[in-house]
């Protein structure tokens, strides 16, 4: 039995994200993520107005009058959510923890998928694979995905994104639209991400908090590395230290974006202190223009 506060959060997320998908994102999602292409459906008799090039000459010769091949678009996709629940996801100084934001992002993508009759699966990872939910359809399945994203208690603290991407390759037999939801505070992952993007349509969604780029002037403060447990005592009243903190954050962000661009990975940046839906709308519009 889930605690009441978790049940309320799940219900709130379900209501909020399903409305956002219905009102704002469903059409954009379908237009920018394509199925496997055009596939053969059936043979039927030729009708005036049909294209001559669609005639199936073998069947026509056999039946004595013209028949055409009918094709349909294979729309169904497999959508995989790779969710990073390492120690740093429990950080948050604004409206919510990064983990809570990641759960809402997972929910909106899952609802967009089933709204288009696609299948959705979930891989929760830290420095190990914590949970795998195979891709399926249906509202009940999406509720399970949201519940695990919000309530699952991982055992690991650090991050192995490269390992999660290798696991994705092992459990998927066909191309998938893959959303990687993480703060990308991980070891080397460029090679694994490039390999995954050749097989799948990968989108990186970076979750950040404003205090990760801006250290407040609050005197002596104790900081903890959420993924190693190491403690630091810093004097945040030192302007040079705050400047170095901000510069390090900018450098890491620029390096991350440079990596995504170099291997042609679409990416979205969302923050705990800003509405994420605007970033998704911008992403869908930009991808639609490119297509």
List its salient traits.
alpha/beta; 291 residues; Rossmann fold; 44% helix; 2 domains; two-stranded antiparallel sheet
Put simply, the count of helices is: 8
As laid out across the biggest beta sheet, the strand order is 5-4-3-6-7-10
User: For the residues shown, what is the average pLDDT?
Assistant: 87
Indicate the low-confidence ranges by residue numbers.
none
CATH superfamily of the largest domain: von Willebrand factor, type A domain
Q: Approximately what portion of the residues adopt beta-strand conformation? A: 15-25%
Describe this structure in words.
The chain has helices spanning 4-32, 57-63, 98-115, 139-151, 161-171, 190-199, 239-262, 276-290; strands at residues 37-45, 67-74, 78-84, 119-125, 129-136, 177-182, 201-208, 220-224, 231-235, 266-271. The protein is of the alpha/beta class. It has two domains: 4-33 and 75-207 and 266-290, von Willebrand factor, type A domain (Rossmann fold, 3-Layer(aba) Sandwich); 37-74, no CATH class. It has a six-stranded mixed β-sheet with strand order 5-4-3-6-7-10, sandwiched between helices. A two-stranded antiparallel sheet has the order 1-2. Helix 1 packs across helix 3, helix 1 packs parallel to helix 8 and helix 3 runs antiparallel to helix 4 (139-151).
């Amino acid at each position: 039995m889930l605690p009441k506060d978790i049940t309320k959060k799940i219900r709130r997320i379900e209501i909020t994200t399903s409305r956002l998908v219905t009102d704002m994102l469903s059409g954009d999602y379908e237009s920018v993520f394509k199925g496997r292409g055009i596939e053969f459906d059936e043979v039927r008799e030729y009708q005036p107005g049909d294209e001559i090039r669609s005639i199936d000459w073998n069947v026509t010769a056999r039946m004595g009058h013209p028949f055409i091949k009918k094709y349909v678009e294979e729309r169904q996709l497999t959508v995989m959510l790779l969710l990073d629940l390492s120690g740093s996801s429990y950080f948050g100084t604004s409206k919510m923890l990064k983990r809570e934001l990641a759960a809402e992002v997972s929910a909106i993508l899952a609802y967009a998928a089933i709204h288009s009759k696609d299948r959705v699966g979930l891989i929760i990872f830290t420095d190990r694979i914590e949970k795998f939910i195979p891709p399926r359809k249906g509202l009940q399945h999406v509720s399970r995905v949201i519940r695990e994203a919000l309530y699952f208690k991982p055992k690991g603290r650090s991050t192995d994104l490269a390992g999660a991407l290798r696991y994705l390759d092992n459990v998927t037999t066909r191309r998938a639209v893959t959303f990687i939801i993480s703060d990308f505070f991980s070891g080397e992952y460029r090679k694994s991400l490039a390999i995954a993007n050749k097989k799948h349509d990968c989108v990186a969604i970076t979750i950040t908090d404003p205090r990760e780029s801006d250290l407040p002037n609050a005197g002596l403060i104790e900081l903890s590395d959420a993924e190693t447990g190491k403690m630091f005592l810093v004097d945040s009243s030192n302007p040079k230290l705050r400047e170095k903190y901000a510069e390090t954050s900018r450098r890491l962000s620029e390096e991350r974006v440079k990596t995504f661009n170099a291997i042609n990975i679409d990416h979205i940046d969302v923050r705990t202190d800003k509405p994420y839906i605007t970033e998704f709308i911008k992403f869908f519009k930009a991808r639609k223009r490119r297509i």
